[in-house]
Amino acid sequence: SQQGEEDPQALSIQEGENATMNCSYKTSINNLQWYRQNSGRGLVHLILIRSNEREKHSGRLRVTLDTSKKSSSLLITASRAADTASYFCAFSYGNNRLAFGKGNQVVVIP
Amino acid sequence: DAGVIQSPRHEVTEMGQEVTLRCKPISGHNSLFWYRQTMMRGLELLIYFNNNVPIDDSGMPEDRFSAKMPNASFSTLKIQPSEPRDSAVYFCASSTGFISPLHFGNGTRLTVT
Q: pLDDT below 50 — which residues of chain A?
Protein backbone atom coordinates (compact mmCIF):
# COMPACT_ATOMS: atom_id res chain seq x y z
CA SER A 1 0.00 0.00 0.00
CA GLN A 2 1.20 3.52 -0.76
CA GLN A 3 -0.82 5.00 2.05
CA GLY A 4 1.06 7.45 4.24
CA GLU A 5 1.41 7.00 7.97
CA GLU A 6 1.06 9.83 10.46
CA ASP A 7 2.72 9.80 13.85
CA PRO A 8 1.49 10.32 16.53
CA GLN A 9 -2.04 9.38 15.58
CA ALA A 10 -3.55 11.31 18.45
CA LEU A 11 -2.20 14.36 20.22
CA SER A 12 -3.60 16.39 23.10
CA ILE A 13 -1.94 19.68 24.04
CA GLN A 14 -2.62 22.86 25.95
CA GLU A 15 -3.47 26.05 24.13
CA GLY A 16 -0.32 27.99 23.37
CA GLU A 17 1.88 24.93 23.05
CA ASN A 18 3.35 23.73 19.78
CA ALA A 19 2.01 20.65 18.04
CA THR A 20 4.24 18.49 15.89
CA MET A 21 3.14 15.58 13.78
CA ASN A 22 5.04 13.44 11.32
CA CYS A 23 4.21 11.63 8.13
CA SER A 24 6.13 8.83 6.46
CA TYR A 25 5.73 7.40 2.99
CA LYS A 26 7.31 4.65 0.96
CA THR A 27 7.86 5.90 -2.57
CA SER A 28 9.41 8.78 -4.49
CA ILE A 29 7.08 11.75 -4.50
CA ASN A 30 6.26 14.79 -6.60
CA ASN A 31 5.03 16.80 -3.65
CA LEU A 32 3.59 16.38 -0.18
CA GLN A 33 0.53 18.19 1.10
CA TRP A 34 -1.06 18.66 4.49
CA TYR A 35 -4.81 18.97 5.03
CA ARG A 36 -7.00 19.71 8.03
CA GLN A 37 -10.43 18.20 8.65
CA ASN A 38 -12.83 19.56 11.20
CA SER A 39 -15.52 17.23 12.49
CA GLY A 40 -18.27 16.72 9.95
CA ARG A 41 -16.55 18.74 7.24
CA GLY A 42 -14.41 18.15 4.20
CA LEU A 43 -10.64 18.37 4.15
CA VAL A 44 -9.08 21.78 3.77
CA HIS A 45 -5.71 22.21 2.11
CA LEU A 46 -3.09 23.81 4.37
CA ILE A 47 0.26 23.71 2.64
CA LEU A 48 2.12 22.00 -0.22
CA ILE A 49 5.83 21.29 -0.30
CA ARG A 50 7.56 20.15 -3.46
CA SER A 51 10.04 17.29 -3.52
CA ASN A 52 12.94 19.69 -4.12
CA GLU A 53 12.01 21.86 -1.12
CA ARG A 54 13.09 21.18 2.45
CA GLU A 55 11.04 23.62 4.47
CA LYS A 56 8.03 25.83 4.01
CA HIS A 57 6.13 28.25 6.21
CA SER A 58 2.59 29.53 6.17
CA GLY A 59 1.47 31.62 9.10
CA ARG A 60 1.77 29.45 12.22
CA LEU A 61 2.48 26.37 10.13
CA ARG A 62 5.92 25.00 9.35
CA VAL A 63 6.42 21.98 7.15
CA THR A 64 9.66 20.12 6.60
CA LEU A 65 10.41 17.41 4.08
CA ASP A 66 13.24 14.90 4.21
CA THR A 67 13.16 12.87 1.02
CA SER A 68 16.11 10.73 2.13
CA LYS A 69 14.08 9.53 5.10
CA LYS A 70 10.79 9.69 3.20
CA SER A 71 9.22 11.73 5.93
CA SER A 72 7.62 15.10 6.57
CA SER A 73 6.66 17.01 9.67
CA LEU A 74 3.99 19.60 10.34
CA LEU A 75 4.51 22.03 13.18
CA ILE A 76 1.71 24.23 14.46
CA THR A 77 3.10 26.96 16.68
CA ALA A 78 1.20 28.68 19.50
CA SER A 79 -1.77 26.37 19.11
CA ARG A 80 -5.33 27.58 19.58
CA ALA A 81 -8.52 25.76 20.46
CA ALA A 82 -9.63 26.32 16.88
CA ASP A 83 -6.71 24.15 15.70
CA THR A 84 -8.53 21.11 17.12
CA ALA A 85 -9.01 18.89 14.07
CA SER A 86 -7.65 15.89 12.23
CA TYR A 87 -4.59 16.51 10.10
CA PHE A 88 -3.75 14.44 7.04
CA CYS A 89 -0.68 14.23 4.92
CA ALA A 90 -1.09 13.41 1.23
CA PHE A 91 1.66 12.70 -1.22
CA SER A 92 1.64 12.90 -4.97
CA TYR A 93 3.65 10.18 -6.66
CA GLY A 94 4.06 8.42 -9.96
CA ASN A 95 1.78 9.36 -12.80
CA ASN A 96 -1.15 11.23 -11.29
CA ARG A 97 -1.31 9.32 -8.03
CA LEU A 98 -2.25 10.92 -4.69
CA ALA A 99 -2.35 8.96 -1.44
CA PHE A 100 -3.59 10.14 1.95
CA GLY A 101 -2.44 9.06 5.36
CA LYS A 102 -4.92 7.87 7.96
CA GLY A 103 -4.86 11.13 9.82
CA ASN A 104 -3.69 12.56 13.10
CA GLN A 105 -6.25 13.79 15.63
CA VAL A 106 -5.15 16.91 17.49
CA VAL A 107 -7.02 18.25 20.50
CA VAL A 108 -6.06 21.69 21.82
CA ILE A 109 -7.29 22.24 25.35
CA PRO A 110 -8.24 25.86 26.14
CA ASP B 1 -16.61 31.09 -4.95
CA ALA B 2 -19.14 28.65 -3.49
CA GLY B 3 -16.66 25.81 -3.20
CA VAL B 4 -17.41 22.21 -4.05
CA ILE B 5 -21.07 21.47 -3.46
CA GLN B 6 -22.29 18.00 -2.60
CA SER B 7 -25.80 16.72 -2.12
CA PRO B 8 -27.40 15.29 -0.17
CA ARG B 9 -25.53 15.87 3.10
CA HIS B 10 -27.05 12.79 4.64
CA GLU B 11 -28.61 9.74 3.05
CA VAL B 12 -30.20 6.85 4.87
CA THR B 13 -31.40 3.98 2.75
CA GLU B 14 -32.20 0.33 2.95
CA MET B 15 -30.03 -2.41 1.61
CA GLY B 16 -30.72 -3.05 -2.04
CA GLN B 17 -31.82 0.46 -2.88
CA GLU B 18 -30.12 2.66 -5.43
CA VAL B 19 -28.20 5.64 -4.11
CA THR B 20 -27.06 8.64 -6.15
CA LEU B 21 -24.63 11.18 -4.78
CA ARG B 22 -24.13 14.49 -6.56
CA CYS B 23 -21.26 16.92 -6.88
CA LYS B 24 -20.73 20.34 -8.38
CA PRO B 25 -17.02 21.16 -8.63
CA ILE B 26 -15.49 24.60 -8.46
CA SER B 27 -15.87 26.44 -11.75
CA GLY B 28 -12.67 26.27 -13.79
CA HIS B 29 -11.33 23.16 -12.09
CA ASN B 30 -10.67 20.41 -14.62
CA SER B 31 -10.02 17.54 -12.22
CA LEU B 32 -12.65 15.86 -10.07
CA PHE B 33 -12.22 13.15 -7.48
CA TRP B 34 -14.55 10.91 -5.51
CA TYR B 35 -13.27 9.65 -2.16
CA ARG B 36 -14.76 7.43 0.51
CA GLN B 37 -13.84 7.86 4.17
CA THR B 38 -14.29 5.27 6.91
CA MET B 39 -12.66 4.82 10.28
CA MET B 40 -11.20 1.49 9.27
CA ARG B 41 -9.81 2.34 5.85
CA GLY B 42 -9.33 6.09 6.01
CA LEU B 43 -9.63 8.06 2.77
CA GLU B 44 -9.85 5.93 -0.35
CA LEU B 45 -9.81 7.33 -3.86
CA LEU B 46 -12.66 5.81 -5.82
CA ILE B 47 -12.34 7.54 -9.18
CA TYR B 48 -10.65 10.50 -10.80
CA PHE B 49 -11.86 12.53 -13.79
CA ASN B 50 -9.82 14.92 -15.89
CA ASN B 51 -11.68 17.16 -18.32
CA ASN B 52 -14.83 15.05 -17.70
CA VAL B 53 -13.08 11.83 -18.73
CA PRO B 54 -12.55 9.04 -16.17
CA ILE B 55 -8.79 8.57 -15.84
CA ASP B 56 -8.45 6.15 -12.96
CA ASP B 57 -11.33 4.08 -11.59
CA SER B 58 -9.20 1.39 -10.02
CA GLY B 59 -10.50 2.36 -6.60
CA MET B 60 -14.13 1.66 -7.43
CA PRO B 61 -14.81 -1.32 -5.19
CA GLU B 62 -17.28 -3.25 -7.31
CA ASP B 63 -19.50 -3.11 -10.33
CA ARG B 64 -22.21 -1.85 -8.03
CA PHE B 65 -20.42 1.50 -8.08
CA SER B 66 -20.49 3.78 -11.09
CA ALA B 67 -19.58 7.42 -11.64
CA LYS B 68 -20.33 9.85 -14.41
CA MET B 69 -19.33 13.37 -15.31
CA PRO B 70 -21.61 14.50 -18.14
CA ASN B 71 -20.19 18.03 -18.10
CA ALA B 72 -17.62 20.18 -16.35
CA SER B 73 -20.03 21.30 -13.63
CA PHE B 74 -21.64 18.06 -12.50
CA SER B 75 -20.75 14.55 -11.43
CA THR B 76 -22.63 11.67 -9.88
CA LEU B 77 -21.62 8.59 -7.95
CA LYS B 78 -24.19 5.81 -8.02
CA ILE B 79 -24.38 2.67 -5.93
CA GLN B 80 -26.81 0.02 -7.10
CA PRO B 81 -27.69 -2.07 -5.19
CA SER B 82 -26.45 -0.58 -1.93
CA GLU B 83 -25.15 -2.73 0.93
CA PRO B 84 -24.55 -1.98 4.64
CA ARG B 85 -20.78 -2.09 4.08
CA ASP B 86 -21.12 0.90 1.76
CA SER B 87 -21.92 3.06 4.78
CA ALA B 88 -19.31 5.81 4.84
CA VAL B 89 -18.77 9.49 4.16
CA TYR B 90 -18.32 10.14 0.46
CA PHE B 91 -16.36 13.20 -0.56
CA CYS B 92 -16.08 14.95 -3.87
CA ALA B 93 -13.05 17.15 -4.51
CA SER B 94 -11.87 19.24 -7.43
CA SER B 95 -8.60 20.83 -8.46
CA THR B 96 -6.79 22.45 -11.36
CA GLY B 97 -4.69 19.32 -11.80
CA PHE B 98 -3.82 16.08 -10.08
CA ILE B 99 -0.76 17.39 -8.27
CA SER B 100 -2.49 20.63 -7.31
CA PRO B 101 -4.23 21.10 -3.97
CA LEU B 102 -7.67 19.52 -3.72
CA HIS B 103 -10.78 21.42 -2.69
CA PHE B 104 -13.21 19.16 -0.88
CA GLY B 105 -16.94 19.36 -0.47
CA ASN B 106 -18.48 18.72 2.94
CA GLY B 107 -19.33 15.16 2.02
CA THR B 108 -22.38 12.93 1.98
CA ARG B 109 -22.83 10.68 4.99
CA LEU B 110 -24.37 7.48 3.68
CA THR B 111 -26.00 4.96 5.99
CA VAL B 112 -27.27 1.73 4.50
CA THR B 113 -29.42 -0.33 6.87
A: none
